[in-house]
Amino acid sequence: MRGSTFQRCGCRDATGRQLGADCPQRSRRGHGSWWIRYDAPRDTDGQRRQASAGPFDSRREAEVALADVLDRRHKGTYVAADRGLTFARYLDEWMAGKLALKASTRTSYDHHIALYLKPGLGHVALADLRDTDFEELYAAMRQIGRPQAGNPSPMLARLLGARTTTKQARRPLTPNRVRSVHATVRSALNAAVKRHKIAHNPALYVELERVRLPRALVWTDERVTEWRRAGRRPSPVMVWTPVQTGAFLDAVADDRLYALWHLLAFRGLRRSEAVWLSWVDVDLDAATATVRSGSQQDWDGPKSEASERAVALDPGTVVVLRRHRKAQKETRLLWGAGWIETGLVFTHEDGRALSPNGVSQRFDRLVTRHGVPPIRLHDLRHVAATLALTAGADIKVVSEQLGHSTTQITRDIYLSVMPQVAQAAADAAATLVPRAVATTLAQQSVHTLCTPGDISGTQNDLKESKTAGQKVWGGRDSNPRPRDYEHFRSERCAVTRARRGKRERARPGYSSVESLPSPGWGKVVPPTPTLRWRQRLVSRAVLCRVHHRTA
User: Fold this and answer.
1) Would you call 142 exposed, middle or buried from its count of C-beta atoms within 10 A (0-12, 13-18, 19+)?
2) In Å, how far from its chain's centre is CA 357?
3) How much is the pTM?
4) Where along the chain do its domains lie?
5) What's the CATH architecture for 87-205?
6) What CA–CA distance (Å, rounded) separates 131 from 145?
7) If residue 138 lies in a helix (H) or strand (E), which one and from where to where?
8) What's the CA gap between 406 and 164, in Å, rounded?
9) What is the pLDDT of residues 361-415, one digit of tens each?
10) What SS3 string covers 482-536?
11) CATH class of residue range 217-424
């Protein structure tokens, strides 16, 4: 394997012919550019081929690039660039080879390719794609549906031209949509690397906007009140309380698909899992429902291997499903020959399979009609998980019930803490700390430091009282002197002297409450009081007397 570097410039003579090696300025520093030439892999007929690459700013850069190419040729990782293969043509080849894709995944890939990848970068050669190209594409995607200052960029103009409807053109894209398109790009270019069409995946070096998953919040009374006032939801993901869940189920008890709403709320099946659930996978005697792949030809199957599971049914759900099956049999007799046999648990009136999107729309209409706080149909999975947690179920059991591959997913996404559970946890934690003095909220209140006999100040008493340190009433803004000011002053002076140092604080006469005269105003007395505690109690009592006289 051989290679070399050479210099090239654009200088020409009077006839327009390139000077090449005869250029008199070639020896000048920075004149022209440097290129490399090396032996490329032979053709299929065994003929020798040479390839070139460049330009480079200096001879040193060209030599480094040549050494890298020769090293990859030696290791067998060299990829010959095919400048004739565009990104659009490669995407068509890549999709043609994806035979094991689920129908929903294929639809998503086709959508990304048709609306974003082909219009934006389809004309670029696959070997020429750089990370900056994808950064420009994603920046243009973020501008869709947002006001523009001046004319749109060429990239944005191509993206807008690919959107066939005005509604599509005006709808802004979320950061999640950009991430979804980027995932398609990474998958396609990873396959290109494996097929030796490019040396590396340029999409790996693209930084995307950070996306925060919305936190699931419970519809507390305060949030419901604010929603009814302003009409805004605190979070995209909201969870009903047990009372709200029961109110909704009671309101839709006469709905033809009540069993579906009941099953989703209590057992947390995914929408597609419930829509494509077959009677052959439901054993009401054993109180189980099995979610498995291949149960229906039109269904892609469970989301993952962990999604294939047996879901335990509670007695109430078993009763609801028995009633639903009985009603379905009666409906089938009424339809007669017009009944379409699908074997599904939940169907249209004539037996046809339900549309997942249609189920979500029906649920939204029921929520709006009955005036309950709004949630999405998928949020019923959050409700089911939260109800199980509130009932004391183990996190592993809840994770298997929902079909999660790890319990971490269940903890991070689907579990919301009910207010009563949080309050019980706070109360339980508070009882673990032993205290010498009961520290209830009532005992810590300033008002409870006064005995009923002390709360006797009136406006007349206030007018007759004097200001501390003054002989006469000092006016509205003065600090009124308590009745027992002289009595408390002696104690406060003793406390002040005791705080001057460690030795003085330890002197006899100041370390025990018996050495101080009892004023008769404190009802909460600890078994072993300290001077610091005594000082705080005196200060609070003084403030309390002033408070009751000025209230």
Assistant:
1) middle
2) 23
3) 0.60
4) 3-75, 87-205, 217-424, 441-550
5) Orthogonal Bundle (1.10)
6) 24
7) helix 131-143
8) 41
9) 999 999 999 999 999 999 999 899 888 888 888 888 888 888 887 888 887 777 6
10) CCCHHHHHHHHHHHHHHCCCHHHHCCCCCCCHHHCCCCCCCCCCCCCCCHHHHHH
11) mainly alpha
